[in-house]
Specification:
The chain has 410 residues and is of the alpha/beta class. The protein has three domains: 2-167, MoaB/Mog-like domain (Molybdenum Cofactor Biosythetic Enzyme, Chain A, 3-Layer(aba) Sandwich), CATH 3.40.980; 174-251, Alpha-Beta Plaits (2-Layer Sandwich), CATH 3.30.70.2860; 256-408, Maf protein (Alpha-Beta Complex). It has 14 helices and 17 strands. The chain has a six-stranded mixed sheet, sandwiched between helices. A five-stranded mixed sheet has the order 14-13-15-16-17, sandwiched between helices. A four-stranded antiparallel sheet has the order 10-11-9-12, with helices on both faces. The chain starts with a strand and ends with a helix. Helix 3 (46-59) crosses helix 4 and helix 9 runs parallel beside helix 14. The protein is elongated and about 80 Å long.
Length: 410
């Protein structure tokens, strides 16, 4: 069983919005043994959308489309489906009543433009939307099932679970998609260590990708049953962890911050942060994790030298002698932050994110990260490659990783 996923929207093609629907749908289809052959993104063009649908139903028996079901002039997916089916659009009265009911509950007036959302090609059926005003559409054309859902992720997920997934056939076997996240080594280094596991005709299929400053190892395991696929995943995961050791941060939805938070919570310990070049990015990462108030006490963003002196008691003569970007200043920032906030651990970051401000002795990308804790204070020196945003991101991850390694005793 194979499928194609189409994402509709000019904002996706233009890069203004990131398509998360396709990845979500691919994972769910894989759990049913349905292999996704292609993700295709199409702008708001009726002819192009119709062409993409027509091409897809020649290729696979299952086509899933998201987006283009709104009430405005650029929402053209229903019209494109009608073109493929060679069918006029007709009003689905039940769908129209459901749309009216939503506006009544919201105490808002329904505009005439919303009526178009109840229009579907003759011969198709509407899929109810419990969260929004855009009903989905199901049609069968040339032996292929076409499911069209809203592009809003929350509405798509709800509709898929209720209206689509129960009607999908199961493919032969089960595909399990899993990910291991690593930090501290480049993609080429990681690839070299697991090269023999990355044969393109093997089961599981193993590959690497770089995103958000981390190298991730993607694993696709196939078996006749879910238990069998999970067993294959566990075996290869154990082998990868054995080879990479503490370079492996976590898996699947785990992040550097969530792993650090879990370790702190398990130990009943707390964290504070002092940041300069990252401007609070590390604190934002930590607090993005639900429940972080249990272990994160707060942060100090001391961007200027004056702020470092006033808020973190870094002496003026230390700044004058060594400069703000130095081991000495990073150490004082961490130690004084820990004392000021009364935390078990404190992390500090000071560096030159660029694009300007570097010198021969202190180049752009130079960062010092310090970790102060019950067993003393350590400082790491990094020279981060990349543009400003990458330097800041890797600096925050590097500091948190230093704490992770200390907490696991690596």
């Amino acid at each position: 069983m194979k499928a194609v996923i189409l994402s509709i929207g000019q904002e996706l093609v233009a890069g203004q919005t990131v398509d998360t629907n396709s990845a979500y749908l691919s994972r769910l289809l894989a759990s049913r043994g349905i292999e996704t052959l292609e993700h295709r993104t199409v702008g708001d063009d009726r002819e192009l959308i119709a062409g993409a649908i027509a091409d897809s139903i020649k290729l696979v028996p299952l086509v899933i489309v998201t987006g283009g079901l709104g009430p405005t002039e650029d929402d053209l997916t229903r019209f494109a489906l009608g073109d493929v089916m060679e069918a006029d659009l007709v009003c689905d009265e039940l769908a129209l009543e459901q749309i009216k009911g939503i506006f009544v509950r919201l105490d808002r007036r329904m505009t005439e433009s919303n009526r178009v959302q109840a229009m579907i090609p003759r011969g198709a059926r509407a899929l109810p939307n419990r969260l929004g005003t855009a009903p989905g559409i199901h049609a069968r054309v040339g032996g292929a099932d076409i499911y069209i859902m809203p592009g809003v992720p929350s509405e798509m997920k709800e509709m898929f679970a209720i209206c689509v997934e129960p009607h999908l056939p199961s493919g032969e076997g089960v595909l399990v998609h899993r990910i291991l996240h690593t930090f501290g080594a480049g993609e080429s280094d990681i690839g070299a260590r697991i090269a023999d596991l990355m044969s393109r005709d093997s089961n599981p299929l193993v590959g690497t990708t770089v995103a958000e400053g981390m190298v991730s190892i993607r694993v696709i395991a196939k078996s006749a049953t879910m238990d069998g696929a999970e067993a294959i995943w566990r075996d290869v995961s154990s082998e990868i962890r054995r080879r990479l050791g503490p370079l492996v941060v976590g898996q699947d939805d785990e992040t550097m911050s969530s792993v650090v938070g879990r370790l702190l919570r398990q130990r009943g310990e707390t964290l504070a942060s002092a940041e300069s070049c990252t401007g609070g990015m590390m604190g934002q990462m930590v607090t993005a994790v639900p429940g972080s108030s249990e272990y994160y006490l707060g942060g100090i963003v001391s961007y200027s030298n004056d702020a470092k002196m006033r808020m973190l008691n870094v002496p003026a003569d230390v700044l004058a002698q060594h400069g703000a970007v130095s081991e000495e200043v990073a150490r004082l920032m961490a130690c004084n932050c820990r004392e000021a906030l009364g935390s078990t651990w404190a992390l500090s970051i000071t560096g030159i994110a660029g694009p300007g401000g570097g010198t021969e002795q202190k180049p752009v990308g130079l960062v010092y990260a310090a970790l102060a804790g019950p067993d003393g204070t350590s400082v790491e020196r990094f020279v981060m490659p990349g543009e400003r945003d990458i330097v800041r991101l890797r600096s925050a991850l590097g500091a948190l990783n230093a704490l992770r390694l200390r907490l696991i005793g690596a």
